[in-house]
């Protein structure tokens, strides 16, 4: 008895390897994009935390007659942010704007070079203003 062989062509040889390499490239690209978006979210949350702390510390300094913006600047820097603006809104309320630079992977996926955040702090009686 003679074995029957199916005809094969050389055109199909190696096509599975190319397909696997393409799938690996897509998975790596997707992983890079997701990592960049995650880092961008983390940097924004960190900037917001820095703004909140700077505003609270500055408002407390304002309440005691100290240099509120100087204190806010120091707190922002200690938390890895840059103070962009500091405004005494009156009534013991202080508003601060800060930013933090985004990591390279976050910039790579187009989420921006920096994360910005703003916060206000002051006495409860000034809440509705």
Comma- or semicolon-separated keywords:
3-stranded antiparallel β-sheet, alpha+beta, 129 residues
Main sheet specs:
3 strands, antiparallel
Mean pLDDT: 86
pLDDT below 50 for ≥5 consecutive residues: which ranges? none
Provide the helix percentage: 40-55%
Query: Compute the gyration radius: what is it?
Result: 27 Å
Query: What's the N-to-C terminus distance?
Result: 96 Å
Tell me the series of helices and strands, N- to C-terminal: HHEEHE
Per the principal axes of the C-alpha atoms, what is the gross shape? rod-shaped
Structural class: alpha+beta
For the secondary structure, the number of strands is: 3
- The fraction of residues assigned to DSSP E strands is 15-25%
Q: Strand order within the widest sheet?
A: 1-2-3
Number of domains: 1
In DSSP terms (H or I, runs of 4 or more residues), the helix count works out at 3
